[in-house]
Amino acid sequence: MNQKKLDRVLKLHQLWLDGDAKGERANLSYSNLRGSNLSGSNLRDSNLRGSDLSYSDLRGSNLSYSDLRGSNLSHSDLRGSNLSEATYAHCRGNNTTIKTIHCDTYDIAYTDAVMQIGCERYKIADWWKFTDAQIRAMDGRTALDWWKVWSPILRKIIKYSPAENNG
Length: 167
Fold this sequence. Notes:
Distance between the termini: 29 Å
Structural class: alpha+beta
Radius of gyration: 17 Å
Strand content: 5-15%
Number of helices: 3
Number of strands: 4
């Protein structure tokens, strides 16, 4: 996607965020945005599912409530970006702000505060407090069996390879 078209999508998205009937929600799903300059952009609640954002400048952008599922964020600069409530299942993180790993059945993505396992997204501290019944309720018996094996490993991974604070 060229910069001119991207600028138009961002302008219409801002109008949509402002409640203007002429605006529309940014749908950049499956777009090639590799190397784009999106620094300072307001992409709140945008659809970036499956898009290639590798090597992009996203510094200071608002990605809150955005759909980043399956997107590629490798080598992107997310410093100062707002990632609150963004969905990033199956994405490829930038290995700094969003780290991603695959453990047997589930893809895991985590930031300094939140971990998403499959489609379940909670604060990291909350994951460690869940009871067996709560884990089982998420995805049945297989989830609990998986959790019993992988939770101690995930604790160590996050302890020794934490995601950077994005603030």
